[in-house]
Automatic annotation (TrEMBL):
Keywords, sorted A to Z: Endoplasmic reticulum, Heme, Iron, Membrane, Metal-binding, Monooxygenase, Oxidoreductase
Keyword Oxidoreductase set for record: yes
Protein name: Cytochrome p450
Binding site for heme: 451
Presence of keyword Membrane: yes
Transmembrane segments: none
Organism: Daphnia galeata
Amino acid sequence: MGLFLAFLLAVYYWVWSRSRFVRLINAIPGPKALPLLGNVLDLNVNHDEFLRVANFKWIKEHGSIYRVWFTLRPMIGIAAPEFLEPIFTNSATAIAKSIEYDVLISGFGKSLPLAKADLWKKNRRILNPTFNVNILNNFMGAFNDKSLVCAREIEEAVQCNNGGEINVFPIMTRCTLDIICETAMGEKKLSDEEKANYIKNIHGFQNVFQLRLKRPWLRLDWIFKLSDPGRRNKQFCQGIRDFSEMLIKDRRKLLKQIRNNEKKNECQNGIDIDGDKKEKNMVYMDRLIKESDVNGNFTHDEMIDEVSAMMAGGHDTSTLTFTWFLYMMARNPEKQELVMDELNLVFGGTDRSCSSEDLLELKYLECCIKETMRLYPSVPFVLRHLPEDIEIDGYILPKDVTIGVMIYGMHHNPRVYPDPESFKPERFFPENSVGRHSYAFIPFSAGPRNCIGQKFAMLELKVVLANLLRRFQFSLRDPTEPKIECLMEITIKPKTNVNLIVSKRDLQVL
Ligand code: HEM
């Protein structure tokens, strides 16, 4: 019987391996694949090695378009901007997420980042307006306030360490959590315990995701549920959901209070609140609650999923950019000085708040942020599903294959960026950007399914960094130490603590 089954499997494999789909995939260059296992063994390595193999080794050996087999499922990796054009300009391909993302459903359901095309179109249309310019400008106060809280945390940490090095990653994590909760989630102030619990759960969840990507057998739900990572994942997901439920409950309570007060004022003053204006300025959480309660567009569970996804998307990516940015400033003191010159010019050496007008002046700071995101794009790759055959670089990529947009690999590709490992913000000066392909720099992805929070993120980054750099100088104890390496999870993490020496600058207090 066993022999017969083995024979049937062998026949199936023989027929499958001669199919049009497999022939087209194997016409694309890529690492040597084993029968059935494909390249799984090449990828069953540490997270830092995974990043190196997928983004450097294979691109160097096989070119900016390569194929790789995860057992019987192939992926085509792409790391050149011109090859991405057919992906991002085709409306069907640009929005079709690949099934590899389905392992995230246990944490985020069918929320915006995971939704299939039709649901995604409907929900993105509903939620897009909650990141419009008016709403974002209203967040400037919170960005400023929370950066001062962050500055105080930094000072306390420096004092606790007697002026020694401090690890900036956890401090920036708390800052971005404070910011997203105070803004998009509707003025929620988190306790230290709430933050710590959330961080533990989200990091645990990300770690398991990476494990499932590397070990395809864990993608089978029934095996996963019985496994140790599966059991841990269940707890992490429950923690993430409880947190989101708490945010929704607290906002509902606050909205009820606000509504009662408004009614009282209307009765006393006889004024009608401008409903249309209120609607346009509705923050993310309020829109979600309204769409659920009034228009029936989200169930309670779907709201929890959306909030969980927005929380994850909205804090981890920005935290990492903050952390890598401060690290780059410490490693490149001459660039930090240039940022300071600009800040002194705009703020005159004072501690005044940062306004929307100031941000337009902070051009060098913006180039440094962009160069940080080029070197350390928080999301190292995004995946798409091909709903139809397309041709790239003379190869036919068959319908149903997964496309890996290798953002990290492309941002480090010497064909795209000469001397790619050096921190050179001047690359982003307008005169040096002439002729650069619009898909060469895509930390927020590209096409219609790009990051919904990218304008939010850029404002948050500029305000917080302008406030921190005016107050502190960042440096390394040993400037000659090798660069901190990256780990490839859903996002790019530093392999070790990012320990920086932080010294206070003189600032005129207004
Ligand atoms: C430096 C900061 C950030 C980076 C580098 C970043 C990057 C990305 C990337 C690469 C994607 C994937 C798109 C794709 O699959 O093609 C994405 C999606 C998303 N991001 Fe961001 N992001 C950042 C900040 C934010 C913030 C602040 C928020 C919320 C306030 C946010 C919310 C989301 C959401 C909800 C999605 C899913 C969008 C959709 O599928 O429609 N992100 N982000």
